[in-house]
Amino acid sequence: MTDFDRTDARLLLALCAKPRATGVELAGDLGLSRNTVQARLTRWEDKEALTPIDHRVRPRSLGYALQAFVTTRVDQHRLAEVTDHLGTIPEVLEVFGLSGASDMHIRIAAIDADDLYRVAGLILKIPGVERTNMSIAMSELIPYRTKPLLERASGLEPAAGARSRDAEAPDSRNRRRPRRDADRPRP
Question: I need a labelling partner for 160 at 20 to 30 A (CA). Which of 40, 86, 131, 146 fits?
Answer without folding.
Answer: 40
